[in-house]
Amino acid sequence: xxxxxxxxxxxxxxxxxxxxxxxxxxxxxxxxxxxxxxxxxxxxxxxxxxxxxxxxxxxxxxxxxxxxxxxxxxxxxxxxxxxxxxxxxxxxxxxxxxxxxxxxxxxxxxxxxxxxxxxxxxxxxxxxxxxxxxxxxxxxxxxxxxxxxxxxxxxxxxxxxxxxxxxxxxxxxxxxxxxxxxxxxxxxxxxxxxxxxxxxxxxxxxxxxxxxxxxxxxxxxxxxxxxxxxxxxxxxxxxxxxxxxxxxxxxxxxxxxxxxxxxxxxxxxxxxxxxxxxxxxxxxxxxxxxxxxxxxxxxxxxxxxxxxxxxxxxxxxxxxxxxxxxxxxxxxxxxxxxxxxxxxxxxxxxxxxxxxxxxxxxxxxxxxxxxxxxxxxxxxxxxxxxxxxxxxxxxxxxxxxxxxxxxxxxxxxxxxxxxxxxxxxxxxxxxxxx
Length: 434
Fold this sequence. Notes:
This protein is an all-alpha fold. It has helices at 16-39, 41-49, 54-85, 88-105, 114-137, 139-142, 148-177, 184-207, 222-235, 241-272, 276-304, 306-326, 330-358, 364-393, 396-414, 419-433.
C-alpha cells in the first residue's frame, strides 16, 4: 500500500450495518437536491408560484443565496458545538427532520404564494445543507481508516443513483402518472422527496451512534463554547495547516467544477445549438458517470491517497475543459462532458475523505463546517467570472476558458499539501486529547 495512506483503522470503526446506513443517507437526501433544486420545483416556483415573472426568478436565486450564506456562517460554530457536546447525531437528525417537514409544507403552496414558498424553501434548504455537514463528519467515525476513500465513494455513488431514480419517478409523475388538477402532478413530486428522504434516512438516524462522549453544557453555554473552540482553532491554525491548504485548494477548484456544471447547458445551447432534451440527456449521463467514477475511485483513493486521487481528477478536468472549449461538434462536447462526469464524483469524494484524514477526531464536525463554508464561498466567484466575460465579450468559449483556470490554480495549491505529515499530526492531536 502507498505510504501516504498507511493509516491504522480506528478501534471504534462502525459495523457493516452502520456503514451501509451512512451511505444510504446520501441516497435519501439526494432526492431534495435533484427534484427541489435542480429539475422540477425550481421551475414550478418561478413559472407557476411566481407567475413566470422576473421577480420570481430573483426570489428563487435569493432563496438559494440566503440558504448558502446562512449555512456558511453558522456551520463552523455549530460544528464546534457538536464536537464539544458529542451530539452530531442530534444535529443531523434535527436538520434532516427540519428539511423534511418544511419540504412537505411546500406541497400546500400554489400560484401567488411566492413569499410563503420562499420562506418555506429557505428553511428546508438550510436543513438539507446543514444536515450534510454532520453527515460528512460521521465518515471518519464509521469507516475503517484504510477504507475511508471507498466508503466516501460508496456514499456519493448511492447519492447519484438515488437522485436519478427519484428523478425518473418524478418525471413519470409530471408526465402523466398524476392528474394535472391544481398542479397535483408537480406538487406530488414534493411529497415524493419528503417520503423518499424520510424512509431511506431512517437507518442512519436509528443505527448510527456517536462515538464521542456526551458533555453537558459548560457554565458559559454551548454557543459561547462553540465560538471559543473556533477561535482556538484559528489561533493554532499552523497545527492544521495541511487541512487549511486543502480547504483553500478545494475552494478554488470546486468553484470551477460547480460553475462548469451550472453553465454547461447554457454553453451547449449558445455555442453548439443543443436542444433542452439533448442537454437533459447529457445531464443524466453525466450523473451516471459521476456515480460510477465515485465508486471506482474510492478504491484508488485508499490505494494511493486522497491527494494523488485529487491530482488525477484535476488534471483530467482541465483536459476535459480544454476539449469542451476547443470542440465544434456535439460529439466532442459529449466526450468532454463524460470525462467531467467521471471525474466529478471522485473529486468530491476524495476531497471529503482527505479532509477527514487531516483533522483530529475531536474537530471533525467543526472541520466539515469549514468545509461547507469554503464550498458555499466558492460557489460565488466562478459564475460571476463566466457572466462577466460573456457580458464584456459575448464569447462563451472565452468565458469557459476562464473557468478552466480554476482547476489549474486549485491544483497548484493542492500540490503544496503534505498528506502524510497532516495525517500523522491529526493522529497525534487525537491521541493527546484521549
